[in-house]
Structures are given as structure tokens and as C-alpha cells.
Specification:
By secondary structure, the protein is α/β, with parallel strands linked by helices. The protein has 19 helices and nine strands. Keywords: Phosphoprotein, Transferase.
Length: 530
């Protein structure tokens, strides 16, 4: 029990609950309180402890007091509140060593090493102090008779300070691990919107809270004398901003964002915290997030470190996009070169690109070929498809533009365009590590005239030995060629074109690809007018 030695101590701790609640509500902004758990089978001890410590404040934060009357109930409470800072724990409860067993469960089963545990006992002989100190991971050991109000105050403050130090170390350890993992994830993202969403997710993970947040990019314009921003990702209650970009109902947030961009630094003004991020190519970003409590110093420090990683990851994204644009420009230039001599093909390659993308999406929706339809395949297949006839640069004009049917010798020369295109693109693809538009384009150029039944050219491949990219483009190429005028034919109707393709499903064409095309046509979802 708590020993009240004098009237002065009594006046310090005999304070009514209303006073404590009013004091708690007067805090602005309110900070997350320290959680203290009292585990004792005597209700009077609960009451006396509450009266003694309820008004204690440390680092401008009050206490949230929890109570348990048994070791089992205490274990449940600490499980439900893993952020508990201090446990004032009785040794003898339902058994003579119930408190000691609870210590071992907390440290062992829950692996909670940061909570500070102060043992209190009215029967010191039941648990000798020296043995307990040596055998158990506790912060202090007190007999109930020696715990005056002042000593209890000292014990609580020293325990909270020790908990804070341990928590800072642990938060830094976990935070740095999350930063390394999160930054690594950001390096894998290849679009700005994906990147922005990834940043919001990683900030939420770093702070270990669910989060309403936005990521904005400064767009170089000014509105009413202020730098304008574009919202590129938002979560929770801010999600509507991705559609409206309208901050008129959030003047305090708009002011914090403007201040961050103007001063080029992060602003911590709960609840309007704003991270400032800049990159080597002079793009500026701001991230607003809304944790329920003002951030601790350790959290701010971790966020600043994360900002540096975000900046490096964005620079990586920028370089990746520039490289990808360079590849796309090369692909378009090669396709234009092949098309330059054949004005009648018009926009053929662009239609092929759009329809190839659409068929790949439909096949994925139909759950066909999941091993082939990877994210990389889906990203590259459309652009790569425009290279399917690049080998025609080696076809003589008198054969390429012949208005009638080709004779056998001419047909042999015409068919060489598949190997010519494949070889040109394969040689170029060797200069790029991993898969690229050129690598996909090479396999399309080589195999888009192969037939599903093995009767095509140049290698007479059959079935799924033909790359899926080429099986898709085989259908697309014929579909578009039949619908449009060519030197050797007039355009066909959509009905006649679809009848032709249906009849050759399983012989010339992959039947699944044909089914996907039929679906797009019947549902009027072709990516161009016919």
C-alpha cells in the first residue's frame, strides 16, 4: 500500500478526477499520453495509485491509466496495448509468483522489451529482491510500504524516461529498416502516380498509423501569387483531391503547403504536417499526412532521412522514364522507316499497337496465359508490336507494291522480311540488358506469320511454341489488313473480316486470341473506329 507520510504529500495527490480531465482537455495540441498499467488484486491499491500519479506529466504528456486485477488480465491488457510505457505490478496475486510469471510472459511470449516493469509487493519474503533483480528483466523492485507519493513520482518519471530512451532506439532501428525496404520498393515503380502512391504508403508504414494523406508536385504555375500544385496521389478523406485539385475548403493546409514550397523545408504544424522533397532535376514535391498525434523528434528525424531516399528514388524514376522514352523514340523511328515506303498502310502500325494492347488486356481478364502476361509484357507488347514488319525495308519495291498476287519466287522474297526484321531487332536488343521493346519486337517480327497449326513461315512453329506476343499480333495484323485498302485488295467489311478470322481459329490463329477479339468486337470495345 502507499504510505502517506505527511499532509503535504496528501495535498499533492488527493485531487479530484474533474480537475485531471479538465487539465487533459486544455492541452493544445493534445499529445499521445503515456500508458501506465496497474496490475494488483487489491482495488484499494488501484485507487491510491490513481490518486497519487494521475496528474503526473512528463515531456508535456499526461498519463493514461489502465487497471488489471490478475496476472491473466494484465497479460490481456498488455497484449491489447503493446505501446504501454510502464507496468506497476504486484508479485502475489492469484498465486505467490503470479507477477513474476507475468514478467516472463511479457518478455518471452510478447517479446516486449521496451515496457518498463516495476514490481511492488506487500510480502517481500515471498520474492527476495536480490533473486528477482538477477533472474527477471524488471526496472525496479519496491515494497508497498516504502512507496510514498514522492518515491512513486520518482519511480514513474525514471521509468518513463528509460522507456522513452529504449523506444527511441527501437523506433530508429525499425524506422531505418522500413526506410531501406520502402525506398527499395519505390525504386521498382515506373510511373509517377505509382511512385506517389508508394510514398504515401511508406510514410504511413513508417509512422505505423493509418493515414489520410496527399502527395503534390509543384507544376511551375502561380495562382493568386502562389506556386500551384497538382495532386498526384491521395488517400483517405483527401482522395477527392485527385479529381478536383481544389484546396479552397482547406485554407490552413494550402497555407502550410505554400509555406513549405516557399521556404523549401518541411513544416511540422500538427495537424498540418508537410514534408518537402526536391530532386536533382529540380522537381519539388510536398507530402501532407495526418497522424493522430504531434510527431516526436525521432519520427521527424526518420521522415527527414526518408525524404532523402524518396528524392533519390524519384531521380531513379526520372532516369528510367527518360531511358524508356529514348527506347520508344527508337521504336517509332524504326517503324516509321518501315512504313515510309508504303503510304497505303497509313496508320496501320498505330492501330496494331492499340489493338495489341487491348487484346493483351482482354486475355488477362479472361485469365489465359498468366505466366506470359506479366507486368513487363503488358507494358511493352503494344509498343513492340509496331515493329512487326520492320523487315520490309529489305523488300524490293516491285514486290512490296505489286497490285496483284505474288508468284512463288516473289512470295519467297516477300517472306524473307520476317527473318530480316528479327535479325535487325535481335542485334539491336543485345545492346540493352534484359527484356526491351527491341527484344519483344524481334520475336514478333520473326513469328507473326507462323500459324497455330504449324503451316506458317519462316520456321513452321506451331501452338504455344509460337511466342504469345507473335500470336496476338498475327490476329491483329490480319484483322487490320483486311479492314483497310491495300495495293492488292479493297477493304473488307467487318462481318467478312470476322468470318475469315473465326474460320481460322485453331488453324492459323490462337483460338483464345480470336475469342478475345470477338469479345471486343461484339461489345463494341475496339480501340479505333472501323
Amino acid at each position: 500500500m502507499i504510505d502517506n507520510n505527511n499532509q503535504h504529500d496528501e495535498e499533492n495527490w488527493l485531487l479530484d478526477d474533474d480537475h485531471a480531465e479538465a487539465d487533459e482537455e486544455s492541452q493544445s495540441p493534445r499529445k499521445r499520453p503515456w500508458t501506465v498499467l496497474v496490475v494488483d488484486d487489491e482495488k484499494d491499491v488501484h485507487t491510491a495509485t490513481r490518486l497519487a500519479i494521475q496528474d503526473i506529466r512528463f515531456k508535456d504528456k499526461g498519463l493514461q491509466l489502465l487497471y488489471a486485477s490478475s496476472a491473466e488480465e494484465g497479460f490481456r491488457m498488455i497484449t491489447e496495448h503493446p505501446d504501454t510505457a510502464l507496468i506497476l505490478l504486484d508479485v502475489v496475486m492469484e498465486t505467490d509468483d503470479a507477477g513474476l510469471k507475468l514478467v516472463r510472459r511479457i518478455r518471452g511470449e510478447l517479446n516486449n522489451q521496451t515496457v518498463r516493469i516495476v514490481l511492488r509487493t506487500g510480502q517481500p519474503g515471498q520474492a527476495p529482491e536480490q533473486e528477482v533483480i538477477l533472474d527477471y528483466d524488471i526496472n525496479d523492485y519496491k515494497t508497498k510500504t516504502e512507496l510514498t507519493v514522492q518515491k512513486l513520482f520518482t519511480t514513474v518519471i525514471s521509468s518513463l524516461r528509460a522507456h522513452e530512451n529504449l523506444l527511441t532506439i527501437e523506433k530508429n532501428r525499425q524506422g531505418l529498416a522500413k526506410i531501406l525496404e520502402g525506398a527499395g520498393d519505390l525504386y521498382q515503380l515506373h510511373s509517377l502516380k505509382e511512385f506517389a502512391s508508394g510514398v504515401l504508403k511508406q510514410v504511413s508504414t513508417l509512422l505505423d498509423v493509418g493515414m489520410d494523406g496527399i502527395l503534390c508536385v509543384e507544376n511551375g504555375n502561380q495562382v493568386n501569387g502562389r506556386l500551384a500544385v497538382e495532386v498526384i496521389a491521395a488517400t483517405g478523406s483527401y482522395e477527392y483531391l485527385t479529381h478536383t485539385n481544389d484546396f479552397s475548403s482547406l485554407p490552413e493546409l494550402a497555407e502550410a503547403i505554400h509555406e513549405s514550397l516557399t521556404q523549401k523545408k518541411s513544416i511540422y504544424r500538427h495537424p498540418y504536417d508537410v514534408l518537402y522533397i526536391t530532386s536533382q532535376n529540380n522537381r519539388e514535391f510536398v507530402v501532407h499526412f495526418s497522424p493522430p498525434w504531434p510527431l516526436e523528434d525521432v519520427e521527424r528525424n526518420l521522415l527527414e532521412v526518408f525524404c532523402q531516399r524518396i528524392s533519390a528514388a524519384y531521380d531513379n524514376l526520372y532516369l528510367y522514364q527518360q531511358l524508356r522514352k529514348s527506347q520508344e523514340a527508337t521504336v517509332v523511328a524504326l517503324a516509321d522507316l518501315a512504313e515510309f515506303r508504303d503510304s497505303d498502310t497509313g496508320q496501320h502500325v498505330l492501330r496494331v499497337q492499340k489493338l495489341t494492347d487491348a487484346l493483351a488486356e482482354e486475355l488477362k481478364k479472361m485469365k489465359h496465359y498468366p505466366q506470359d502476361l506479366t507486368a513487363e509484357f503488358m507494358e511493352m507488347i503494344g509498343m513492340a508490336s509496331i515493329l512487326h514488319d520492320v523487315g520490309k525495308v529489305g523488300t524490293p519495291d516491285h514486290i512490296l507494291f505489286k497490285p496483284g498476287k505474288l508468284d512463288p519466287d516473289e512470295r519467297t522474297i516477300m517472306e524473307q522480311h520476317a527473318n530480316i526484321g528479327a535479325q535487325i531487332l535481335h542485334k539491336a536488343s543485345l545492346m540493352v540488358e534484359g527484356n526491351s521493346y527491341l527484344a519483344f519486337g524481334s520475336e514478333i517480327a520473326a513469328s507473326h506469320h507462323e500459324h497455330y497449326d504449324g503451316c506458317g513461315y519462316p520456321q513452321r512453329k506451331r501452338g504455344e511454341d509460337i511466342p504469345l506476343s507473335a500470336r496476338i499480333v498475327a490476329v491483329v495484323d490480319v484483322f487490320d489488313a483486311l479492314l483497310h485498302k491495300r495495293p492488292y485488295k479493297e477493304p473488307w467489311t467487318l462481318k467478312d473480316t470476322m468470318d475469315y478470322i473465326r474460320q481460322r481459329a485453331g488453324s492459323q490463329f490462337d483460338p483464345h486470341v480470336v475469342t478475345a477479339l470477338i469479345t471486343l468486337v461484339e461489345e463494341d470495345r475496339l480501340p479505333f473506329d472501323v
